[in-house]
Amino acid sequence: MAEHSYDYDVLVIGAGPGGYVAAIRAAQLGLKTACAEGRATLGGTCLNVGCIPSKAMLHASEYFDAASNGTMADMGVDVTPKLNLDKMHAQRIDAVDGLTKGIEFLFKKNKVDWKKGYASFQDAHTVKVGDETVTAKDIVIATGSSVTPLPGVEVDNAKGVVVDSTGALELAKVPKKMVVIGGGVIGLELGSVWRRLGAEVTCIEFLDEILPGMDGDIRKESRKIFKKQGIEFKLSTKVTGVVVKGKKATLTFEPAAGGDAETMEADCVLVSIGRKPNTDGLGLDAIGLEINQRGQVETDHDFRTKVADENGGVWAIGDVVRGPMLAHKAEDEGIAVAENIAGETGIVNHDVIPNVVYTWPEIAGVGLTTEQAIEKMGGDKSKIKVGKFPMMANSRAKTNHEPEGFVKVIAEAESDRVLGVWAIASVAGTMIAEACVAMEFGATSEDIAYTCHAHPTHAEAMKEAAMGVQGKPIHI
Ligand code: FAD
Ligand code: NAI
Asked: Which of 208, 337, 394, 413 has the fewest CB atoms nearer than 10 Å to its CB?
């Protein structure tokens, strides 16, 4: 075998949740590691313009909403809230600053070198980062994703009239009328923020229901809840163009199936129709790596691309490869790829990746939807059993004035093995972790039903939904 000497054992391209975690894990495993990042701060989309700042705005606006919509008054706390949007933004920026600097600290602690700049492949072991040439035995592509543009709609975040998620996090004032294009996760989370702060919000969705990919019951019920909160929906509708004049936008839209066009005015339009993998400028041609039809880098089960030789190779993880575009999925792949590079066995169970929408209440799920479970059983509904428990009948949710939602446990009828769990509840995102552990251990619904859950907690609804699979919940 030819002897080669490289600057690093591992070079990771991109310092998002996939890349920074891969770099830290590789260093922990004793590999000399560098990470290239073009952004001015570490943490990728998630920490800079995604998960973290959106949750900062969601959390703060929840307080404002609870104070202004009567929730606090119902509990004997009479307040008249006054919005200080600058301060709300300041605490968002503070959260991002603290966490991105935290990654810088972790890099130093673990001796990961940060190569500042955008990386481009020269060959399978050589990358140019700015003016520097860096060589490595193994290289991990973790370049993430960016906003999918909508033809005919030009985003200008600085102007703040037609924005993407980054612009929608930073609006300098509450729009009077906001139109959200796309009833997916970003549209509902950021639409909720501005609705709570006083905007009239309309969501235009191409499909006949919001939140594609989630369980059918969950999609329907969550839309009802959002409607009650004041978000208007136009389903089965497509936006064909947006014209901006001064500070106003005029949207043109028509039925998805075709038909007469209509127009609507807005002070702010949020384009949130999905995200696409980042591969432009990466120099994939130089290593003979093509992207697939969805723009993703293809890998095998171990995150290895087809570019490999006896000295090492090129790997890829996170939003730039197949699977849900989620931070925790990218992180787990980051750990697994580092372990695989180090010669260990890194595994991610892609069947058990939770999905959470951080609205009020939260929406969460893991595993198969009811529709997917039935399909898996060859269309035979009798081969699955479903237990459902309303949050209204959960003592803690009721006491906390959080009666909306339900938990749904889907199990295979014959084996009772849990196939999927879905929930709408104030703390559904936290509750779903129990379902993930259960499914990871191959639990049956009976296992969950006979596990002692603390009282009074929202988590008891999970136990009762599992009891419902066998038809015997206590509190309904
Ligand atoms: P990214 O986080 O996108 O990081 C990739 C990094 O690579 C970027 O910093 C980029 O600058 C850098 N890069 C790209 N090309 C190069 C190059 N050639 N050279 C050097 N550096 C390069 N997910 C959740 O799980 N929970 C949430 O609550 C959540 N909220 C979100 C809210 C919003 C508004 C958005 C937009 C996304 C949200 N996501 C959430 C999705 C989540 O942010 C992504 O799934 C996650 O960041 C993907 O991680 P990644 O490491 O693959 O890529
Ligand atoms: P999305 O894929 O979740 O939703 C996009 C929606 O837009 C879909 O419902 C789709 O049918 C609709 N759509 C597509 N084209 C349209 C058109 N022309 N007109 C009207 N509707 C159209 O994408 P989104 O919301 O942009 O988020 C991108 C990704 O970011 C998500 O898939 C998710 O992976 C990640 N994310 C995760 C979060 C979380 O975990 N809480 C929060 C925010 C983002």
From this structure: 208
Contact 239 CB / ligand 2 (< 6 Å): yes
Output the six-digit token pair for 204: 């235009």
**Could you tell me which CATH class the domain 162-273 is placed in?**
alpha beta
CA gap 388, 49 in Å, rounded? 36
DSSP assignments along 24-83, one per residue:
HHHHHTT--EEEEE-SSSSSHHHHHHSHHHHHHHHHHHHHHHHHHSSHHHHTT-------
Does residue 455 carry a catalytic annotation? yes
Ligand 1 center to 145 CA (angstroms): 6
According to CATH, the superfamily of the domain at 361-469 is FAD/NAD-linked reductase, C-terminal dimerisation domain (3.30.390.30)
Q: Which residues line ligand 1 (CB under 6 A)?
A: 13-19, 36-39, 44-46, 50-51, 54, 118-119, 142-145, 165, 186, 278, 281-282, 318-319, 325-328, 330, 358
Q: Are strands 200-204 and 177-181 parallel, antiparallel or unpaired?
A: parallel
- pTM of the shown model: 0.98
